[in-house]
Amino acid sequence: MRTALVIGTGLIGTSAALALSGRGVEVHLVDHDQAQARTAAALGAGTDEPAEGRVDLAVVAVPPAHVAATLADAMRRGVARGYLDVASVKGGPRRELEALGLDLTSYIGTHPMSGKERSGPLAATADLFEGRPWVLTPTRDTDTEVLNLALELVALCRAVPVVMDADAHDRAVALVSHTPQLVSSMVAARLEEAGEAAVRLCGQGIRDVTRIAASDPRMWVEILSANPGPVADVLAGIAADLDETVRSLRALESSDEAKRHEGAEGIEDVLRRGNAGRHRVPGKHGAAPTVYEVVAVLISDQPGELARIFADAGRAGVNVEDVRIEHATGQQAGLVQLMVEPKAAPVLSAALRERGWSIRQ
C-alpha cells in the first residue's frame, strides 16, 4: 500500500491516518467538516489536498448511519482499488450496500476494537490500535486483493486481525461493547441526584464501572441505532437477572428464615455466574486469565513517586503485571495497587518495605 484516502477524520479515522503516515503511506484526508480535516493534517495524519488519481485503499470512518451512503459515493466515483469501513456495526451497512446494487467485490467491512471516551482528531494517536483486535468480515465475494489491503492496514496499525461473520460480530459487540456502555451510563445516572455525602464516598469500584459513561452521547446514539436488536436482547437477559436479584434482596428483608435463605441463594447464584463470566475475559497477551496478588503501597501525590516505585520493583526482580491507583479523598496521597504473580508478592512486599515504602494489607 502506497496511498490511502481516509474519509472521516474523527478519533478512529485520524488515528489510522497517523499510523499509516508514520509508516510511509501517502494519506489524503476528507471530512464533511473541512476544519476537522485540516486539524488532522496539522497533526501529521496526512494532507487535506485531493489525491491525483485512484488511491490503493479508501478507509471510511464515519458514523454507522452514514457508512453505506459514503461508501456508495466513493465506489461510484472509483476513488480507490479497495474500500473498507471501520464502523462498530457490520451487518446493516453491508445490507444497505447490497440494496443499492453495488459490486461489493472491492469492499470489506472491518471494525478496530479500540477507542476512547474522547472523540475528534485531537484525541487521536498513532498507537491507538496497537495490540488490539481488528475484526474483518469478508464474504465469498470479497476480492483477495482487497482482503490483503485490509490485512496490510491492520499490520501497519499494529493491530491483531480477527475474521468473523458480520452478524456474529454485531451480536458479539452488543455483548462486550454496546451493552456495557448503557449499563455504565445507567449506574452513573444514579449519581446525578445523589447527595454530596454519598458522592464523596466514591471509590475505585464506582470509578471502574462508570468510566465509559463519560463517552459522547450523540456518538453512542448513532452506534446503538445501528445495532438495536442484539443490544436489546442482551439487556433483556440482564433485566431478568435484575428482577430476580431484586426479589432475592427483598426476601433477605423477610422475617421468614426460609425466604431469607432463598434470597441468599439467589444473590450467590448471580455473583457466582459473574465470577464464571469474568474468568472468561482474556488475560495478558490474550492468554487464559491469571489471578494476581495485589501489593498495595501508600504513595504521595508527588512528581517521580510512580517512577521510583516501579524502579524499586524492577530492582527486586519483580514484573508488575498490572497497576491501579486509588486516590484518597481529601488527601495528597493514595494507594498504588501493584498486581504481580502470587509467588512474587512476598518478595516485592519485603523489597519495598526495605526501601521505605509503606505496605498496606
Description:
This protein has 361 residues and is an alpha/beta fold. The chain folds into 3 domains: 3-164, 3-Layer(aba) Sandwich (Rossmann fold), CATH 3.40.50.720; 241-279; 293-360, ACT domain (Alpha-Beta Plaits, 2-Layer Sandwich). The chain contains 13 helices and 11 strands. The protein has a 7-stranded mixed β-sheet with strand order 2-1-3-4-5-6-7, with helices on both faces. The protein has a 4-stranded antiparallel β-sheet with strand order 9-10-8-11, with helices on one face. α3 (64-77) crosses α4 (91-99). The termini are far apart. The mean pLDDT is 92.
Structural key phrases:
PDH_N, 17% strand, NAD, Rossmann fold, 3 domains, 11 strands, alpha/beta, 4-stranded antiparallel beta sheet, 361 residues, 7-stranded mixed beta sheet, 47% helix, oxidoreductase, Alpha-Beta Plaits
